[in-house]
Amino acid sequence: MIGALELGLIYGLMALGVYLTFRILDFPDLTVDGSFTTGAAVAAILIVGGTNPLLATLAAIAAGLAAGAITGILHTKGKINPLLAGILTQVGLYSINLRIMGTSNLSLLREDTLLTPLREGGLMGTAVAVAIFAVVALVFKVLLDWFLHTDLGLALQATGDNAEMIRSFGVSTDRMKVLGLALSNGLVALCGALIAQYQGYADIGMGIGLIVAGLASVIIGQAIFGSRTIVIATLAVVLGSVVYRVVIQLALMVNLDPNDMKLISAVLVVGALVLPQWSGSWRIGSRLGVRRTQVAGTTTKVDA
What's the pLDDT at 59? Predict the structure, then answer.
């Protein structure tokens, strides 16, 4: 279970990136599946080549920023549908990632990574590692909160809420979309780089279906913990990522087939989307029932 908490906190960075496009920009970005692997591939090949792990991770972030910017440019300048723009970038990144790694799987087991001190100290799988990953996730959450409260961040939010209105104030919504997509995929690539170092390898297929996990984290987190303010919403996203990984771990512990994990993820997303609507319908139905009772009681009194 400790491993699930560690993974949940690391994947929380990816969930923050998905939140930025899905909730803030209202942009269905499918680049995530490709940029996650790009981050892992760039970090892995540089670490194997002897680059300092920190610099390799920063390079992974830069690669993610570039991937997101490409999707944004395809959409804003090429006038390509948002879904299609993300798919095109994702498909292109598959070949690029293979070129970067030179193979479909790249091992990091004998290399020094950012997590090597934790492994050598026997801290992986302990509360100390969970606390460290929690601090990392919290730092990026706070940075995102700060950014979204700056003038640039407010313009980004306004672009997602009402693009025509913010354009009337002279803001370039095209630039905002490119910026938002770049930042989102930068966070996703950072997550990919850390996951590669955590599990000891980078694989060409490690990002497949990741968008579902990201959406599950965002939707589950906000359904459970709320989204009244940016600060609460981003915290809910990180906690949602932890909840999602814990649920997956529990599913594995009851001997469910690992091949069914994608199906379980899809079911979790459907449940998180549908249950709040059912809950709202139930509340409305209850209120209507109370009002009908009150009206019936009033009518009876009048007749009497």
Answer: 95
How far apart are alpha carbons 288 and 7 in whole angstroms?
45
d(CA 38, CA 217): 21
- CB of 145 closer than 8 Å to CB of 230: yes
pLDDT confidence of residue 223: 82
User: Could you tell me how far CA 207 lies from the centroid of its own chain?
Assistant: 12
CA distances from 52 to 48, 65, 167, 197, 202 (A): 10, 20, 43, 13, 17
**pTM score, whole prediction:** 0.86
Give the structural domain span for 150.
2-208
Task: Kindly report, residue by residue over 173-212, the tens digit of the pLDDT.
Answer: 999 999 999 999 999 999 999 999 999 999 998 888 888 8
Q: Is residue 155 part of a domain?
A: yes
C-alpha 17/C-alpha 14 separation (Å) is 5
Q: How far is CA 295 from CA 216, 281, 289, 302, 303, in A?
A: 42, 21, 10, 11, 12
Report how far residue 132's alpha carbon sits from residue 2's, in angstroms, rounded to the nearest whole number: 13
Residue 288, classed as helix, strand or coil, is helix
Would you say residue 243 lies in a domain? no
List, in order, residues 6 or more apart from 156 with CB less than 8 Å away: 24, 25, 148, 176, 179, 180
Q: How far apart are CA 188 and CA 67, in angstroms?
A: 10
Number of domains in the chain: 1
Place of tokens 């139930």: 282
Structure tokens at 182: 């770049």
